[in-house]
Amino acid sequence: MRVTKLLSLIRNRHLVQKFDDRMVAPEAIEAVLEAARYAPSAREAQPWRFVVIQEALLRHEVAAAAFNHPHVRTAPVVIVCCARIHSHVSGNGRPSFPVDIAAAAQTLIIAAADLGLHSSWICGFKESEVQRVVGIPGDVPVVALICLGYQAGLADLPERIPHEDAIAWDRWALPDGRTPLR
């Protein structure tokens, strides 16, 4: 099977080590947000709401809520990914919005890679602090922070776990290939 441009982007995308201080063009930000709007969601509820932060002082306040993560402080763009509604509850009793927002965030990240941007996905933050700083209502969940910008310097691609440790066919398999007893 041939490797398409999309598969190549996915394989070569990596967590940025350090952001360059170069600004991101508004058209690029709009393009990645537009891509995110087309992500799949349960029952097509599209529960996402994105707050784009470019102002340095505000980024620093959000970084403080994200345990002073350097990517939040230094990225020229931070996108706060929220669920504007508590969406569909699936048959297992779990709300779908965390997965819906993750799908939108991943779509945004791949679109950013296509435009030559790098990203950092941040899940460690004090939600109530982010809500307060950005003015997000308390009943609107904040799911992730996506930092966007240009990579400063070079970075190595991370090692991936072996295929056989990540994928099993038909039944769960142990690392040695055996299937657990039922």
CATH C-level name: Alpha Beta
CATH topology: the name is NADH Oxidase
Provide the low-confidence segments as ranges. none
Instruction: Supply the number of structural domains.
Output: 1
Q: Structural class, from helix and strand content?
A: alpha+beta
Strand content: 5-15%
Binned, the helix content reads 25-40%
Largest sheet: 4 strands, antiparallel
Strand order of the main beta sheet, please? 1-2-4-3
| Helix and strand pattern | HHEHHEHEHEH
* Terminal residue distance: 36 Å
Instruction: Give the overall shape, derived from the CA principal axes.
Output: globular
Q: Kindly state the number of beta strands.
A: 4
Number of helices: 7
Task: Give the CATH superfamily.
Answer: NADH Oxidase
CATH architecture: 3-Layer(aba) Sandwich
Rg over alpha carbons: 18 Å
Mean pLDDT across every amino acid position: 90
Description:
The longest helix has 18 residues, at 97-114. The two termini are 36 Å apart. The chain is globular. The chain has a four-stranded antiparallel sheet with strand order 1-2-4-3, sandwiched between helices. The chain has one domain (5-153): NADH Oxidase. It has helices spanning 5-12, 26-37, 56-65, 70-74, 97-114, 127-134, 163-166; strands at 48-53, 77-83, 118-122, 142-149. It is built from seven helices and four strands, in the order H-H-E-H-H-E-H-E-H-E-H. It is an alpha+beta fold.
